[in-house]
UniProtKB/TrEMBL annotation:
Coiled-coil features, chain-numbered ranges: none
UniProt xrefs under InterPro entries: Nucleotide-diphossugar_trans
Top-rank lineage group of the source organism: Bacteria
Glycosyltransferase recorded as keyword: yes
Localisation: Cell membrane
Lineage, uppermost ranks: Bacteria, Pseudomonadati, Pseudomonadota, Gammaproteobacteria, Oceanospirillales
Membrane spanning stretches: 46-70, 428-449, 483-503
Alphabetically ordered keywords of this record: Cell membrane, Glycosyltransferase, Membrane, Transferase, Transmembrane, Transmembrane helix
Protein name: Alginate biosynthesis protein Alg8
Any Pfam family: Glyco_tranf_2_3
Length: 639
């Protein structure tokens, strides 16, 4: 386990203590309101919500976690030892650095280039830094850095100004400029963003892996963040990096990754200067049956990854080397909107590329990596099954089920947080709700973007792309996206409704109740016969129903309604707990079908108290319903 840089942004202790108190209060509330029967084996809906699908999702997640531990504890230490043993021989003869910046604060740019130039100077290899800039004031900042560091002799600076149409064209221009310099065969390329701070010895501890792994095409490192924003924003970024660490480590067991992060990645230069590599970075496109052919706006790290994956080059993640990003939400005062914009761009890049990567098949990448790509497509739907079923069961079966689901969320996300914290080296209680937010809201965003992934927007650069120039074509595409998205959601809801059985077809009892005035007279106007008949027929799957704290009026017409019922789920009626008991006021005719605790018929003008240990019974033809914790009162004046 590697130690996070000291300047990593984390939530304050006051926030953590507040989160602890709130979660303890929530836990007490959930445990006090949790219905005991919700965990009954007969509860099919509960099992479906958190059983089958939950077992699948969490088993896959634990496989990723176990692979991550195996990589960090067993595989990577051997790779690290070999790379460190290479010493000076592990260094390339030349190094090129591509650093792209766009409207970054002057103080951040100074810190970034100071760390970069210092690293290159200490590394001691002849290095050319290509600074791809959007503003000439950045030249003054970099010049100031070079003056402060004494113009290191092994560092050469080259400036290239961006066109303003995105990062891709800027990268392609630099790569073509590098290829014209005829670099050495063993030269390496570091590609990084202009808001990434290199920690000490980053180059020394990362680039030697290329010498000891001849089939290694690229590598990337661990991340930390210096965040401008509130505590929730700080922990949101660090949680994402903790999740990234787990997935990257797991993928490295197979020597494949799911992305080569644009923040900091290193490549063999002879690969990065191939014409097909440069063309893909600059003009990556997708040809879609509905959207046609459109160009990618962002996601250059997905393009470089796909090129290496397609050409069967291996990739590696270095968990003990950190680079630190200066992170800030597009609008720091609006957490929800800003995180939505960021996730929409990230998920769009993923969806635009994963389809063609899956089409390559398992052979160029291995079965595990291929299935991980497939799982990205499946998980955005399976993640939504749990909350959807919880809502359905809460609305149509048992309102208190929502407490059981909330307890399940609190338990499972706490376990996930502990595992992430163990590997990350730090823990935050804010991760528990943020994990659920990332998973569920992220899944909603993925499903939304999957039907509209041609729509692209880069908030920092204020540019968008992907849709046709014709307004009518744009309208058609958007409407079709809404229709397809709605159809998929409707199918999912339909399947879940049938699978959980929360909406049963109407039986004869329900139809009789809906027949109108004639049925009303037969059922007994002014009684609770109808309600109790429905409760007996469609009660809780556990067979036990708790009655409300009130007086329920019943007569012999209850028997006629129940006689038309094909099924009767309820086996036990329990009175309401507390100071307000449940009382059944019944007619003498119905009293003949009620027996007290000793098995005797209740007298025509009598009462009976049904205790937990000595309950009463209501006989309905050949069926019997237990009556517990309630009072029965026979009303002689009722017919």
């Amino acid at each position: 386990m590697s130690k996070l840089p000291d300047h990593t942004s984390v939530a304050s202790k006051v926030t953590e203590v507040t989160a602890l108190l709130l979660m303890l209060a929530l836990l007490v509330l959930l445990l006090s309101e949790l219905p005991s029967e919700v965990f009954s084996p007969a509860s099919k809906s509960f099992f479906f919500a958190i059983g089958a699908i939950g077992a699948w999702r969490y088993s896959w997640w634990f496989v990723q976690a176990l692979r991550s531990v195996w990589y960090n504890r067993r595989i990577f230490p051997r790779l690290r030892a070999a790379a460190d043993a290479a010493g000076e021989a592990g260094k390339p003869s030349e190094l090129y650095v591509l650093c792209t910046s766009f409207r970054i604060d002057a103080d951040v740019s100074y810190r970034v280039y100071e760390a970069l130039v210092r690293e290159v100077r200490d590394y001691g290899v002849p290095t050319t830094i290509f600074a791809s800039l959007a503003d000439r004031t950045d030249v003054d900042i970099i010049t100031h850095v070079m003056e402060d560091l004494g113009w290191p002799s092994n560092v050469e600076l080259r400036y290239m100004f961006q066109k303003g149409d995105g990062k891709r064209s800027a990268m392609a221009e630099v790569l073509r400029a590098i290829s014209r310099r005829a670099p050495a065969p063993d030269a390496l390329l570091v590609s990084m963003d202009g808001d990434i701070l290199l920690e000490p010895r980053t180059l020394e501890r990362s680039l030697s892996f290329f010498r000891t792994n001849e089939d290694l095409g690229a590598l990337t490192t661990n991340n930390s963040a210096i965040v401008t924003g509130g505590d929730a924003t700080k922990e949101w970024y660090d949680l994402r990096y903790a999740q990234r660490h787990l997935v990257m480590s797991s993928g490295s067991v197979s020597r494949r990754l799911l992305v080569l992060t644009g923040r900091y990645s290193a490549f063999r230069l002879d690969l990065a200067t191939q014409p097909s590599f440069i063309e893909l970075v600059e003009n990556d496109r997708v040809d879609h049956w509905r959207f046609g052919n459109f160009k990618f706006l962002s996601g250059d790290d997905k393009s470089t990854w796909y090129w290496l994956l397609k050409h069967r080059w291996r990739m590696l993640y270095l968990p003990d080397v950190f680079v630190t990003g200066f992170e800030e939400l597009p609008d720091r005062r609006r957490f929800f909107k800003s995180t939505t914009d960021l996730m929409r761009r990230w998920y769009g890049n993923m969806l635009r590329t994963s389809g063609r990567a899956i089409a390559l098949g398992p052979r160029p990448m291995g079965m595990f990596t291929w299935w991980s790509l497939v799982d990205q497509r499946l998980s955005m739907w399976t993640t939504l099954i749990g909350p959807t079923v919880a809502i359905l069961v809460t609305l149509f079966v048992r309102p208190s089920f929502i407490f059981a689901y909330a307890l399940w969320i609190l338990f499972t996300r706490s376990i996930s947080t502990l595992i992430l914290a163990w590997q990350r080296g730090r823990f935050s209680l804010l991760w528990i709700p943020l994990i659920y937010y990332n998973q569920v809201f992220g899944a909603l965003l993925k499903t939304y973007v999957s039907f509209r992934f041609n729509r692209q927007k880069w908030s920092r650069q204020g540019i968008s792309a992907g849709e046709p120039d014709d307004p009518a074509a744009v309208t058609r595409q958007r409407r079709m996206g809404h229709v397809l998205h709605g159809a998929f959601v409707a199918v999912m809801l339909y399947v879940l409704v049938l699978a959980t059985g929360v909406l049963q077809p109407p039986d004869r009892t329900a139809m009789a109740i809906l027949h109108g005035p004639a049925a009303e007279g037969q059922a007994g106007t002014g009684t609770d016969n109808r309600w109790l008949a429905m409760t007996l027929a469609d009660g809780a799957p556990s067979g036990d129903v708790t009655l409300p704290p009130s007086r329920l009026t019943l007569d012999e017409n209850l028997l006629e309604i129940v006689a038309t019922t094909e099924r009767m789920r309820t086996e036990r009626l329990t009175g309401a707990p507390g100071d307000e008991p449940t009382t059944l006021e019944i007619s003498p005719a119905l009293a003949r079908h009620v027996h007290d605790a000793d098995g005797r018929v209740i007298a025509r003008d009598g009462t009976a108290t049904c205790h937990t240990t000595q309950g009463c019974a209501l006989e309905l033809d050949d069926r019997k319903v237990a009556l517990v914790d309630l009072t029965i009162s026979v009303q002689p004046g009722r017919s």
